[in-house]
Give the backbone structure.
Amino acid sequence: MKNKNTLYLMIALTIFFVGTVAHAEETVSPEVSGSRPSNKSIRVQPPKQVLMKKLEGKASTTDERREDVRNKIEERREDRASTTAERKENRVEEMRNRLKNNFDKMLDRLTATIEREETIMAKIETRIAKIKTVGGNTKDAEALVAEAKHHIETAEKALNDLKTSVDLTISQNITASSTSLTKEASSKMKKATSEIEKHLREAHKALEKSVGKLKGMSQLRPATTTPTSTTTSSN
């Protein structure tokens, strides 16, 4: 009987203890009990400082990307500008070289023509001098030679002026405006060349005519003088 009473007492104490502990767990707050609150009931909000740092980081990244894009665009523009400038310089340089080559060829040709006409004129002047010594009339031939000489001198002056103009154009620095200057010099060269050739043709015609005026005079011989005799009458 005594053992049964002891057993009943122990069971009662156990039930009371368990109930008390369970009630204490329900009433104690999570902070006191150390238990973790449910995710469904409590949401932890991040601090404002963390949000600000994230926003600043995103803004910094965006600014860096924009700066990279601007730099790439600027590099492309510089590359295009550099390429365009090089093309212009190469085009102007080609025009200058072409102008110089064309002028050198033209200069050699016209110089040779002038020298040839001057050689012909010198021979004609020598012939005129010989004919004059034997009493030949060389007035017309001399006039034609003077005309030829005028055309030759005019051609020489025009050629020298053109050479100065072309040399000035070629010696200029390469600039954007050099293209128009080179074209202008090329146009002047063609016009001046045409004028020079015209004077040389006129000089050649005048020399040919002077030769015609001297035909037949080469056979002239110095005139011989016969002594005059005086007669005396006797008374």
Remarks:
- The helical segments are 2-27, 30-33, 48-133, 139-171, 178-213.
